[in-house]
Design a protein that fits this description.
alpha/beta; single chain
């Protein structure tokens, strides 16, 4: 069984985590791998099928090769489009590290060989008044894939996130460049700077595209996912 946690830089809510996680699930599907996505926390949910659902979690479900009930994929869903720990507090829900681990244990009973967990917001996401989502990632010893949204400010966000991960002893297996701004000035120069400065290998590039999106894959990603090229 292989497990990965996909996060964005800093507190970045639009780095493209869902987009990249979905592409990774589809890549695994192409190689006949049993894979499932996990979105433990989601805010800004809407009512459908008599329950709160999140568009990102639904995308992960559509991209996976292993099915599960919605509340297994997204156990903590909240309506207000605000930070999940604040939304949880408003409805009287207490998110804890133990509850997240229990939900993850349920996910791992669904029969998948690959578990891709997508974070909420960016790397430094509070889950209650004292704990952060990265505390759970560290407790579960999940390898991390960092998604860098290629836009103004990405160098600072990515380098600060990488430094914090290293200070915690997090196993970041690599990063993926996601071009969220098609008009970014000096895109290639910024990409080259990140390649030179980030202490983790680049795994793939997701170019901006309004057509069918695809990853430009480095061999390191295939090795990380244990896929034969």
């Amino acid at each position: 069984m292989k497990e990965f946690f996909i996060t964005g830089t800093g507190t970045d809510t639009d780095a493209g985590k869902t987009h990249v996680t979905s592409l990774l699930l589809k890549l695994l599907a192409q190689h006949k791998k049993n894979a499932i996505g996990f979105k433990p926390l989601a805010a800004g949910c809407e009512m459908a099928f008599d329950q709160l659902v999140n568009a990102d979690a639904l995308m992960l479900m559509e991209s996976a090769t292993v099915s599960a009930k919605y509340d297994v994929i997204n156990p903590f869903a909240f309506a207000p489009p605000i930070a999940p720990h604040i939304a949880a507090e408003q409805v009287g829900v207490n998110i804890t590290l133990d509850k997240l681990s229990a939900a993850y244990s349920t996910l791992k009973q669904q029969g998948a060989d690959y578990h891709l967990t997508e974070g909420a917001g960016g790397w430094a996401l509070p889950i209650n008044n004292t704990d952060y989502l990265y505390d759970w990632v560290k407790a579960e010893q999940l390898p991390v894939i960092l998604v860098v949204g290629m836009k103004l400010g990405c160098l600072n966000h990515a380098l600060l996130t990488a430094a914090h991960m290293q200070s915690l002893g997090i196993n970041c297996v690599g990063w993926i460049a996601n071009q969220v701004d098609p008009n970014m000035d000096e895109y290639q120069a910024n990409l080259d700077s990140l390649k030179a400065r980030l202490p983790f290998p680049i795994l793939a590039i997701s170019p901006y595209s309004e057509q069918t999106p695809k990853l430009q894959i480095y061999k390191t990603l295939l090795n990380t996912l244990n896929i034969q090229s």
